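note to self — DONT lose this again. spent like an hour looking for the file last time. sequence + predicted structure for the chain T wanted, 447 res
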Amino acid sequence: MTISSSLNAGVAGLAANATQLATISDNIANSSTYGYKRAEADFHSMVIDGGSGSYSAGGVRVTTNRLIDESGALVTTSNSTDLAVRGDGFLPVTTESDVGTDNGEEAMYLTTTGSFRTDEDGILKTESGLVLLGWPAEADGTVPEYPRDTADGLEPVQINVNQFAGEPTENISLGMNLPATETEYGGTGDSLTLPIEYLDNLGTSQSLTITFTPSVSATIGDATNTWSMSISDSATPGEVIAAYDLVFADDRDYGGTLESVTHDAATETIDDIDATKTSSYDAATGILRVYVDGGPIDIDIGAQHDSAGMTQLSDSFAPTSISKDGSPVGIMTSVEVDANGYVIANFDIGISRVVYQIPLISMSNPNGLTSLDNQTYQISSESGSFYLWDAGDGATGDIVSYALEESSVDVANELTNLIHTQRAYSSNAKVIQTVDEMLQETTNIKR
């Protein structure tokens, strides 16, 4: 009956507008919630074919969805581990309860922003219990290759604020001048020594002692321009770990620069040098590699005919420039996250080290994700399969630290929709009231 279908349509309209009112209420309530994604209600008409000469109202039905792919504005904060995604992609997180089970199988959830701080165990998490996930780096700061289509390699980001770290010396640049007069006839033949500090693998100070011994000419008015150079290591006292014969040019074009460097293996006295560890000299780069107790160190003495390296001029013995890498042991002072998702620990000795990498997750249909509490989402069949990207690569944006993402809700727009919804609800109620009056008139008809 047509009048009955009108009543059903009015009831359907009330229910549909009540649902829209619920989404508007949720949006307005979360207008200040960081990372909140706006929900909306979509109305769909229902058509019932009543046949020729009659019409039946089908009414309306409503579906709701959350616009997860809409991004809110970013606001700056004072916390380096307040993170927000700028562009597409999601941060991987898990829950505090999953980490507490300690079974190594934390469930992965997604979010676009979070204010993460270390707890008593150094784990980065939010006040609502979301724990940040990332790939752990090796001791040298490199991040291994992890599978990108699974969360198996991810683990809670844990920062040891009392962590100590140091860097061993691996490269030394040696610029110095040897006195040319010492290789002339009548030279003293005295050895010259130069100690150079380096840091071993444990951050302990050690030293290399480089001894230069001139080869004195036996001919009056002549000079050999030749020196023997031996290197000893304080970690293995009494042993010569490397020895070389240095010859300097004396022509007009390259006078005073290195002409040749020959490895003198016979002079070396260290017992445990591996036969494959030859302390040879590379004339193109100017680097000779020596093996101290903790491993190799590359010493740059200057390439052939390079005046910036080791020279033999005049009558003075003087280091002109000595530089080296490595650092003593220091304590961690702060943590930062860069745009590519690398979690960087800063130490009070001035060094920085990568400790984790946070990937960004993408999928074909973000709006198909399952919405959960605390602005988190979960992969579903409708969202499609996911992939873990390096932040800034592929289909993802980058990570912004010292920032949080605001809600995507426009309050002015929601209030406008609220007015429309109220009017529509009142109109549907009026339809029901009218149908009721019409039915009342029908029952009042007397025979």
